[in-house]
Specification:
alpha+beta; seven-stranded mixed sheet; elongated; about 900 residues
């Protein structure tokens, strides 16, 4: 964390109290907070007025009080809630119509614009907390365990200990406040407010008092009775909380406190069961305390997450990189359209619009993005009203309840795909309340993930973010899941991203594609790139008709090796190892568009949303918008063995995890050391009960398992293909460079034994013995393993200088694998199927189709869309090239069907 205000000067700051009908502001000497506020200004405010009028009223008050005083360092504002006090965004949707026209408005930014105080920090806090902070200083009780109450139009409360307001503590309500706690037949706020007193008085006297003050001053028996009842109720409600919190001081403020003489005795009577009565103070200068407390908020040390991403991997470069002659880690598709660069140019486009909606993927650093644009709006003297769509989210606990069935409790890995939509996370009534009015500002912007749900007719900008960057930010603690107010463990965050957030965000993105006016890549948080929507859609359509690569990304792992580190230029060689390369795991890969040398990355799924028919051809009806095949690397060179594992059966993955098809794999040995091996299939004499007991014992007692007693070990040789249909026990051994050719699901690995090791963070990796035993095929054993699980190549065609081999897959695999071994050239028909290809022997290969050519290097994964029908591979060196091609089988197999 970094401190943003260590060097902040203290002295005269402004404290402001904003109520439903007034604004009070004062200059507060924060170094001497017990001194009386000076230069107090009180102004009326029409809280039901237009947003512009409310902001102008507050701004005018600030400017007036600051005009005749020394420069003000900071401004603290007590604002009624609900309110996002950290951001400075109003969340007041229902407060008797008050402040409803600034719902969702970034009040902090609007006031900075209104006052032109761009170098002044604005702090916001709940009025009850401001009262507590100011009163604690006023009465020298900051270090005591204290409870502060404000009794007025509502029931405000704040707990304090050791000079800190408590927001979360095991001895106080979960919300940190008392207003919502149950009392009698309702909640506390309904009993300890002016409306209860006035309603009660009317019920017993048939009189309709104008105010609590008038009623108290009437001296009537009815008034005395009502106040006595009020004091008894208050004492009865407070008793368990004061006892639980071991409260030493109770400070009561607010307008009702001025009538303390009428309810003090009844209050005390109810508190007598306490072992130690707290010191009770009735505050008669509540407003002064709130003003002081608001100003004192400015002394808080604003903190922000310094580290936005946690990884050793470099960001995508801003502009194209000259080819190195080998494997390229930043493959691009060269568009004939412009990729724009920078916030300034984007701000110029936005400033021409009256209304703009900026939506985007989960994980975007929205406040940073907003501030970057705002910097340029300020330079151009543009007044912008920003509306934060997060104000419309349902409470985090409500969202948690909605998605609970998809998260499978505390399971660190597995949940079930959420089948709802992004709108499930939002309050529909609140979405309808964000209605920027024409003329409110030069430009009104609704921003944040889900902003387009407001249905505002406006220019639509979409901000995309690669999945690897989402995870790097997740690990750094700089982002949350949708609607979450706090971070959970990284594994739980990823689980929720995978099973909940990403499915609804992908669906939302698809729905918006045709409407996007501008799309931007936000991964470089200080330097964006972007395209016009029409240019973007034309580029996507072009890509679906030509060979292309996805952008790979690389991860370390406990068993990782150094083959990629030695053979792939551009990787960070200081990384501990590289276990995986996400070559083509499309749910987490991006595609990089190059335009006038600038690079913009968007998610792979945009291609599928554009034309899954062009990409998948005959397989489009079977797989819809889901790309069915993945290629990835598993590098164990000088590393370790993978865990002993299996993957779920088709019915199991559908029922338990909500996936349409399962994780059927193969291991293609791209390279290996002479003694490399693969664990695959059971020994002939396998006993399932004995094996399970051995696994449980190994886990519980940290006892090494003699794996080869139960699992067969096979020598691995370059270009072997090992078949791993679902339910098959397997693992790659050390010193292999595996090209994993698989169906797309990729996280459903049931580890049974992990060699008693910890992960790279020093934590045990999850073991899933029960899941595994619900899926294992124990009949895959003995001689059957070599016969059915180690592919025996078949020659399909031969010609001078080359041949085509079929590498048979298992009957449950829905994909085929062929290998072309040739010198010179070979022409290949796609037969309306998408081909996923890799040069697995050789240096580089040319792909030619319709007069256009592209070069792909050794070990690079490239995609041939089905619509291409035919393409030619040219290998110009005087040696034999090997190209592996995977594609969907024409005949539906038992391992896959759409339900």
């Amino acid at each position: 964390m970094v401190n943003k205000s260590d060097n902040m000067k203290t002295g005269n700051n402004i404290g402001i109290d904003i109520g439903g009908s007034h604004i009070t502001a004062a200059i507060i000497d924060v170094e001497h907070p017990k001194a009386k506020p000076v230069s107090i200004i009180r102004k009326e405010i029409d809280a039901k007025g237009a947003g512009r009028e409310i902001i102008e009223a507050i701004s005018a008050c600030i400017l007036e009080i600051a005009a005749d005083n020394h420069p003000v360092t900071a401004i603290g504002i007590a604002f009624p809630g609900p309110f996002d006090y950290q951001k400075g965004v109003s969340r007041i949707a229902e407060l008797g119509g008050k402040f409803q026209h600034i719902f969702g408005l970034h009040v902090a930014q609007a006031l900075k614009d209104g006052c032109r105080l761009y170098n002044t920090d604005f702090y916001f806090e709940n009025d009850a907390h401001c009262f507590a902070t100011g009163a604690a200083k006023q009465y020298n009780v900051s270090k005591k365990r204290s409870l502060f109450l404000t009794l007025g139009t509502g029931f405000g409360s704040s707990f304090m200990e050791n000079e800190e307001v408590l927001y979360h503590h095991h001895l106080i309500p979960a919300t940190g406040a008392l207003y919502g706690e149950k009392f009698r037949d309702s909640i506390a706020d309904d009993y300890f407010s002016t409306r209860w007193i006035l309603n009660k008085y009317k019920a017993v006297s048939n009189e309709d008092p104008q105010s609590v003050k008038d009623m108290a001053e009437s001296g009537s028996a009815a008034a005395a009775s009502v106040f006595n009842n009020f004091g008894s109720n208050l004492g009865n409600f407070l008793l368990p909380w004061l006892q639980q919190f071991a409260c030493e001081v109770l400070v009561i403020g607010g307008n009702i406190a001025k009538a303390a003489s009428l309810f003090h005795a009844a209050l005390i009577a109810e508190l007598l069961p306490l072992k130690q009565l707290p010191k009770i103070i009735f505050c008669e200068d509540t407003e002064d305390c709130i003003l002081k407390g608001a100003a004192l908020q400015t002394l808080k040390k604003k903190t922000e997450v310094l580290q936005k991403r946690k990884t050793t991997q470099a960001l995508l470069p801003l502009s194209s990189v000259a080819p190195s002659g080998g494997y390229t880690i930043y493959p691009t598709y060269k568009s004939g359209y412009t990729v724009h660069q920078g916030f300034e140019e984007l701000a110029a486009v936005i400033s021409k619009e009256q209304f703009v909606v900026i939506d985007g993927y989960g994980g975007v650093l929205w406040e940073n993005f907003r501030e970057q644009l705002q910097h340029y709006f300020v330079k151009e003297n543009k007044k912008i009203f920003w509306y934060d769509i997060a104000a419309c989210l349902k409470p985090s606990e409500v969202i948690a309840a909605i998605i609970s069935d998809s998260l499978n409790g505390d399971d660190p890995v597995f949940g079930k795909k959420y089948t709802g939509t992004l709108s499930d996370f939002f309050d529909g009534g609140k979405l309808n309340r964000i209605i920027p009015a024409a003329g409110t500002a030069d430009t009104c912007i609704i921003y944040g993930t889900g902003a387009a749900l407001t249905k505002l007719k406006a220019k639509l900008i979409y901000i995309d973010l690669p999945k690897n960057e989402v995870q790097y930010r997740m690990r750094a603690g700089s982002i949350f899941n949708i609607g979450a107010e706090e971070q959970t463990a990284a594994s739980q965050m990823y689980k929720r991203f995978y099973f909940v957030d990403w499915p609804v965000l992908n669906q939302h993105k698809e729905q918006l594609l045709s409407e996007i006016d501008i799309i931007a890549d936000e991964q470089r948080i200080d330097e964006i790139t972007w395209m016009q929507g029409n240019d973007f859609r034309k580029t996507l359509l072009e890509m679906t008709t030509q060979p292309f690569r996805a952008r790979p990304w690389f991860e370390a792992g406990v068993w990782g090796g150094n083959w990629m580190k030695k053979n792939i230029a551009g990787l960070n060689t200081n990384e501990i190892n590289y276990a995986w390369s996400f070559e083509l795991i499309t749910p987490e890969n991006g595609i990089v568009i190059e335009g006038n040398s600038f690079l913009m990355e968007v998610s792979f799924d945009f291609l599928m949303y554009t034309s899954n028919q062009n990409i998948l051809g005959n397989a489009a009806d079977r797989f819809g918008k889901a790309f069915p095949i993945r290629f990835d690397f598993l590098d164990t060179f000088d590393g370790g063995n993978l865990s002993i594992q299996c993957h779920p059966r088709t019915a199991y993955i559908r029922e338990k995890f909500g996936e349409n098809f399962t994780q059927d794999e193969t291991y293609y040995i791209l390279d290996c050391e002479p003694e490399a091996k693969v664990y695959l299939g059971f020994q002939e004499d396998i006993n399932s009960d004995e094996f399970k007991n051995a696994l449980v014992e190994a886990r519980q007692k940290s006892k090494a398992l003699v794996v080869e007693k139960y699992v067969q070990i096979h020598p691995a040789q370059k270009h072997d293909l090992f078949l791993i249909p679902n339910g098959t026990i397997h693992a790659s051994g050390k010193n292999n460079m595996v090209l994993e050719i698989s169906s797309t699901p990729y996280i459903f690995t049931f580890k049974m034994y992990d060699w008693l090791r910890l992960d790279l963070n020093g934590q045990p990796r999850p073991i899933n013995i029960e899941h595994a035993f619900n899926n294992l095929y124990f009949e895959r054993k003995g001689n059957l393993v070599k016969k059915e699980l180690i592919s025996a190549p078949l020659i399909l065609e031969e010609w001078p200088g080359g041949r085509k081999l079929k590498l048979p897959t298992h009957p449950v695999h829905f994909y085929e694998v062929d290998r072309y071994e040739f010198k010179g050239s070979v022409r290949i028909n796609t037969h309306q199927q998408c081909h996923i290809c890799m040069l697995v022997e050789g240096t580089s290969i040319e792909v030619v189709s319709d007069g256009k050519s592209q070069i792909f290097q050794y070990a690079e994964t490239f995609v041939i869309p089905a619509v291409m029908k035919q393409y030619q591979l040219n290998y110009l060196r005087n040696e034999t090239a090997y190209v592996v091609v995977a594609y969907v089988k024409e005949v539906a197999c038992s391992g896959y069907s759409v339900e």
